[in-house]
Amino acid sequence: MEEFSTRTDLASRALGGGVVWANDEFFAAADHLVLPSAPAFSPRTFDQKGQVYDGWETRRRRSPGHDVAIVRLGAPGVIHGVDVDTAFFVGNYPTHASVDALATDGYPAPAALQAATWVPIVPKSPLDGDTRNLFPVDDRRRFTHVRLTIHPDGGVARLRVHGEVVPDPTLLPAVFDVATIAAGGRISGCSNMFFGRPHNMLMPGLAQHMGDGWETARRRTDGNEWVEVTLAAPSEIEFVDLDTSHFKGNAPGAASVHGSLDGGEWFEVLPRVPLNPDTPHRFAVASGRAADRVRLDILPDGGMARLRVIGRPDRAFLEERFRRHVAQTDAGQSMR
What we know:
Keywords: Hydrolase, Purine metabolism. The protein is mainly beta.
């Protein structure tokens, strides 16, 4: 059941996700639901409305009903599972929750979202307090929004919506970062991630600090560390960015990049190049071959803030993937 939780959090604020409407936020704002950071708690920390919680908390309901928050996914895609995290809510968590999803074009206003026809993806289910409540999702359609309903009221620290990104190809330029999570890139292998997860390298924007990147343990044997990335689509690669920002005493001494297509042999994209600490590096490349995977080798070990693979993707691949998931969605949606 927990395997889905290693996938991309489509709702994360780091990808542009946001809470667009909630019916009640009396004790704590619903915006906390999509924060990428782990929830925190400081006991006996009070403001004018009571104990401060790092999550969404509604008032005690004195009439029948439930509370609702609508979330715009930062990266629309196929949802594989939902994590309703009630961390630190022990006497004030909801007894049950349900989750619905929606696919829509454009940027509908909250009123239009409330009136839409939603697809149930997690039925009303019991919750435990102060824990991650994991619910797998079998529906393989592409969605743009989710609606969390808590029964009857209470607090939820985070809502994670794990899945695979399926971008709309009409909104993508001819050349872009085909490794970024926001376009559907993902980590498919890694030798070591002792200090930092490699998926951090594929996140949008600049790294904020050293912990916002990939960092390995100190290697004490021969060889080197590596990470493999599945690209958003088979692509002709034009530039590779290797950003060691914030890594000053622990940047790799050198790096190289190889590509592969359809599971074939690896070929050279970027030969071994020396790297400087705390430096964004850009390298023009011209392998003349398309790749759907790249492998970054860092020598011998260390940390990398961001990896960008700027390429010209196979548009037919992107369009077919999008069409496949949207065709299923169209049959049951009312806002398209």
